[in-house]
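User: I'm new to structure prediction. If I give you an amino acid sequence, what do you actually give back? Let's try with this one:
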Amino acid sequence: MHNQKPFFMRDPWEYDPQAPRPVRPDSHLGFDTRALHAGFHPLKNVEDFRSFVPPIVQSMTYPYQRFDKFPDYIYGRSKTPTVSVLEERLAALEGGEGAVTASSGSQALFSLIFTLARPGDNVVTSLNIFGEGYKQAATIFPERCGVGFHFVDDPADPNSWDREIDAKTRLVWVETPSNPCLSVADIAAVAQVAHSHSVPLLVDNTTATAALQQPMALGADIVLLSLTKFLSGNATVLGGAIVGPEALVEDIRWNTIEFIGAIMQPMEAWQMLQYLETLSLRMERHSANGQKVARALADHPKVLRVNYPGLPRHPQHRLAQQQMSASGGLLSFVVPGGLEGAATVMNNLELVVHAVTFGTSRTICMHPATITHEHMTPQERAAAGIDDGLIRLSVGLEDPEDVIEDLDQALAWL
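Assistant: Good question. You get back a string of structure tokens that encode the predicted 3D arrangement of the chain. For your 414 residues, that looks like this:
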């Protein structure tokens, strides 16, 4: 809980590829220890809160002690004590200097790009991004803010990224593993390309989480997170975050979010703090279950293709093994019959729930072509591997045999 400069004294963040990365004081601690203690310790924070659990500070305004003394907290649009604990913990888990939260992952992305880019600038990304992010890239920013987006032809080829970067590029944005087709980008290689042009690299780490993948250790400068997914794990919280250099996250906080006001509330932040305590345990189980379900689907005669980086036949399987400790709980698979085939399978599932999210403790499915990625053109969906028969499956914490049995009986209707 640092005493930051007031918003009117802040300078815009400028990326410097030569600047050394500060070492976090808690970097010697293990991941699970940071998930439990970063930002708040029952003994070290006794002067602030005499509590074993971080308290919910619900106040939206904070009194000045003196007219000429700028307080740590002023107004709920900028920051609040409970949210600050969460931001410190997220930064510690990802290995960043700081973090700023938002009302959703989509809002976090918007706030980042809105802070960095100006009319005439551009961002380089690919079609392998989440649907709401694509909408921002394809229409919202170009049409309403004058910020363009360059989509690389082959996300697996670092040279493809290099060709799209120009003098007006302010950010390179990678999602890996991607939603919904689980493509894996080489973070270190793309970071090297971006840095050769003095451009920062953003990695969306929502699918893997810091429990399975550490983008900043591989060269990323900024991490985007949807807290709504595996980080919370139970579909009770809507939230997002940007992790990165402290100057950047404070620029976003004081020069964008302070005025837009799309913030995370103390109650949701407090819930997230409880959920993060079990993150690595949950991701280990999600990964183990995901691996079993993916193998079963890969061997099923009525499944045309399975997208899961833990399968040897995945095109970036070896790369995924190198930069991830496990493959996670998200996968997708293609059934015959296109839209009708996908509807048949999904309508006959009995245990698996049809819902628009992923990363929950219960196994859920969703149809990307008609829901999350409906704004893409058919040609763009084809290029991204989003077939009409593609079903996204978020494998939960149930007994995997029960999930497999339910998928078997639903596929039998084809």
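You can read the tokens as a compact description of the fold. Here is one thing that stands out. Residues 279-298 form the longest helix (20 residues).
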